[in-house]
Structure formats: structure tokens, C-alpha cells
Specification:
Blueprint lengths: L1 E4 L2 E4 L1 E3 L6 E4 L3 E5 L3 E6 L4 E6 L5 E6 L5 E7 L5 E5 L14 E2 L6 E2 L4 E3 L4 E2 L30 H4 L19 E3 L4 E3 L7 H7 L15 H19 L6 H19 L3 H4 L2 H6 L5 H9 L2 E2 L2 E5 L5
Antiparallel strand pairs: 1-2, 3-4, 5-6, 6-7, 7-8, 8-9, 9-10, 11-12, 12-13, 13-14, 15-16, 17-18
Length: 303
């Protein structure tokens, strides 16, 4: 992949086998990752290390040889830089939530879409339209992030009343871990024990956004999500919390399917079929076009 601006072409080398694609080289630097970006090494061998806040936004750049801070940043709630020392052009594009900012437009590349931190909105619609299709992180960027540009509303929505949300989680015994954003989300009014019982095991099926996960692992995750869904649908319906959890499982299935290679994608219908699921069913469940009493058929196929 490459980018050309003002007649200058920058070539990127990507790691696409991870949960979310990340840049390994950009023609100037080579990057090393852990859970987030750790360091950048330029062609002369000079290293720069990154320090972060709770959202993963870069707050300081550290000289690898001296340990001195070479630049520091602070952001407003939607990601615009409100303080920088020293001032001037940032030597790194990896800024708000640790993601890549385009130096020409100041928009952030969040893989599926571009984000404008001056207005706190995406520039294009959510491909899975639910609620405000331009909203970033469920309109709660203080607590949540959206590195894929596809964060579903139930994942990014503000926590329910009675929950304590922070960069490391919610109240003990009252939350479900959803690893896509690297945060923890409370689901349901007060995040009561009944919701935890309904949702038990679902959080462990979702992978951390930047952890390594190839086609084999994604197929395994899709199978586990199918097993969970089959188990939950064998019980009486227990309210909107369960339905939201089922929709979340389908969103994860579709997201993982979209990241599979063409060969692996061919295996998905058979895997889902073992649990009474299909890709069409998941799309219909999310869009709300299911035919009453016939969950595997859409309105379009009703005839």
C-alpha cells in the first residue's frame, strides 16, 4: 500500500495477520508492537519510544538513547491536539488513541473509515447502519475507542446506570469483557447478576484488537460464537439484554468473516449451519429485517 501527497510517494508494509492490520514500515521507520505501538526505529538506527494515556493516545515521545522526552501531547475529548511541547510539526503520525493521523488533512485512518477529530465524527457512514451512522465510539470518546471504524453501538455505547467504567474495566461481577476495543463494556440496566449470567462466556470469545489472529483462529472464534448463540437460543427469551448480546455475537461473526481470506470464507457457511445460523441471518438480525417466526429468512426472500 502506498500514499502520494505533493508528488511524494510513501510505501507502507503492513502486518495483516493480526486482529487489526498495523503498519510495520513506512519508508522512514520500522515499528515494534506489543499490545500497542512500542517504538519506532529510523534508517539511522535511532529509536523513539511511545508513552500513552488510558485511551492509548500518545502523550510523550522518548529518545531511546538518552531517555529524554522529545515531544509531549495533550488532547481534547474528541482527539484534537490542544497542547504540544515543543510546538511545530509532529515527528510521528501515531497520536490520538495511538492511531495514524494523515499529516495533510489531520484525519485519522481507522481502517474502515476516516475520523475527523475537529468535529468528533467519521467522514463516511457506518457500513452496518445502527443509530447515528457517523458517531465515533458511541459518542463517548472519553471511555471508548474504535480502532477498526466498525465499533458496534452496543460495544461503544456509554455504560448503563450503576456501572463503573475505566481503562481497566467495570465493577467486579457486573461487566462483560469485549476485547475489540481493549476496554470493558457494561451491558444492561445496572449490570446486574442476571445479565452477567446471560452473558457469561461471551466476552472470552472476542479477541483483543491488535493481538495476533490468523484465519484458523478466526474460524475457531466463529465456531465458538455459533456454539454460544445456539446455547442461548435454546432458552426462553430474557429481554433486550439477551437480544443485544445475540446481535453482538452476530456482529463479531460478520467482522471476523470479513477478515478471512477467500479460501477460509468458504468454510464459514458450513460452520454456522451446524448451529442453525447463517451470514444472511446475522445481517438480518442486525438490520432488523427478520421475518417473524422464521429467523433464517429475510423479508426480501419472503416470497
Amino acid at each position: 500500500m502506498s500514499r502520494t501527497a505533493s508528488g511524494v510517494t510513501t510505501n507502507y508494509k503492513w502486518e495483516v495477520g493480526s486482529g487489526l492490520p498495523v503498519v510495520l514500515e513506512d519508508g522512514t521507520n520500522r515499528y515494534v508492537y506489543g499490545l500497542d505501538l512500542i517504538s519506532a526505529t529510523n534508517s539511522g538506527g535511532a529509536q523513539t519510544y511511545f508513552l500513552y494515556d488510558g485511551l492509548g493516545s500518545t502523550t510523550e515521545l522518548i529518545n531511546g538513547a538518552t531517555g529524554a522526552t522529545t515531544m509531549a501531547f495533550r488532547y481534547d475529548v474528541i482527539g484534537a491536539i490542544c497542547w504540544q511541547n515543543p510546538t511545530g510539526t509532529s515527528p510521528t503520525p501515531w497520536l490520538f488513541t495511538g492511531e495514524q493521523r494523515d499529516s495533510g488533512s489531520n484525519f485519522y485512518y481507522l481502517r474502515a473509515r476516516y475520523y475527523d477529530p475537529s468535529i468528533g465524527r467519521f467522514l463516511s457512514k457506518d457500513p452496518l447502519p445502527m443509530g447515528n451512522v457517523y458517531a465515533y465510539a458511541g459518542n463517548n470518546p472519553v471511555n471508548f475507542v474504535d480502532p477498526s471504524g466498525l465499533c458496534p453501538p452496543t460495544l461503544c455505547a456509554p455504560a448503563a446506570a450503576g456501572c463503573t467504567v475505566g481503562p481497566v474495566g467495570c465493577a467486579v461481577g457486573a461487566a462483560v469483557g469485549l476485547g475489540v476495543t481493549g476496554t470493558v463494556v457494561c451491558i444492561g440496566v445496572g449490570c446486574g447478576e442476571a445479565v452477567v449470567d446471560v452473558m457469561s462466556g461471551l466476552g472470552s470469545l472476542f479477541s483483543k484488537g491488535k493481538s495476533g489472529q490468523g484465519d484458523k483462529e478466526r474460524l475457531g472464534s466463529i465456531e465458538n460464537l455459533g456454539k454460544w448463540y445456539q446455547k442461548e437460543t435454546s432458552y426462553p427469551v430474557r429481554g433486550s439484554d439477551v437480544e443485544n448480546a445475540r446481535k453482538e455475537a452476530c456482529r463479531q461473526i460478520l467482522e471476523k468473516y470479513g477478515r478471512l481470506g477467500p479460501k477460509a470464507q468458504k468454510d464459514v457457511p458450513a460452520i454456522l449451519g451446524r448451529f442453525g445460523l447463517s451470514l444472511e441471518f446475522c445481517r438480518d438480525l442486525i438490520s432488523g429485517t427478520l421475518v417473524p417466526g422464521v429467523p433464517w429468512r429475510s423479508e426480501a426472500s419472503k416470497e
